[in-house]
Structures are given as structure tokens and as C-alpha cells.
Amino acid sequence: MDKRELFYKLVSFTASVHRVTNELTKDVKSDSISQVQYNILENIAVGHPVTPSEINDCLNMSMPNTSRELRKLIEKGLIEKITDTEDRRKQYIRLSDNGKKMMNEAFASIESRFFDRIQNASTEELKEIEHAMAILQAKVFSQ
Questions:
Q1: Which stretches in the chain have pLDDT values below 70?
Q2: Domains contained in the chain, CATH given
Q3: CA dist., res. 67 & res. 55, Å (int)
């Protein structure tokens, strides 16, 4: 296989992932938070607990912006900071109970939209999709 051709397929695939992600998540966030804050909550929900540096790296934000948005989310009662027991300088961020509730509601909407998208897929196709995602996760998207 031509690796350059594979690379361009990856570029096309990731663009499609971004488009579909936007379609699946459109209008699922609460009006009480910004899109950036939603992205942070989603990142915490799938990778919990995470450090501020991990959020900053994953969402391509500056550390001052990350710190400001985390402070706002703490004030809204959606996240909590936890100090590492072995290294008190290190802090982790996790969802609070209210944050979990908000993200569970958002994920329920996303799940419904996802099920609509795959409603005509056969059992075999669903297995193939699951297998393809596992391979992509293991070989391309993990570090």
C-alpha cells in the first residue's frame, strides 16, 4: 500500500470525523456554558481525571486560557480539583456530580443521534465498524 495515499485518506477521514462530531454534538450543551467549556467537560468525561496540562494539550489551548476556563467551571460547580497524594504540586480535574449529570444528558442526546446514523447497518457491519475503530484507536490515535 502507498503510505502517502494512506496519509491522504487519514486527512479525509479526520475531516469527516470533525464534521460528524459537530453534527452529533450540535445543540447538546447547556446554555450556561461556552463551547470551550463544553469541550473541556467532554475531555474530562472521557479521560477522567486529567491534569490541566493534558486539557491544554488536547484542546490546543494556552495554559492561562485553560486555567481561566477551569476556574469558571469550578465556580459553576461542574468540576473539582484533586491534589495528588504523592506529589502535592500536581492536580487532577474531575467532573463534579453536577458535571456528571450535565455530561450524561449531553451524551444521551449524542447517543440517540449516533443510533439514528447507524440504524440501517447490519450486525456484521456494526462488528466491522467496531473492529475498525479498535484498530484506529490502537494504531493511529493512541500514544
A1: 143
A2: 29-107 (1.10.10.10)
A3: 10
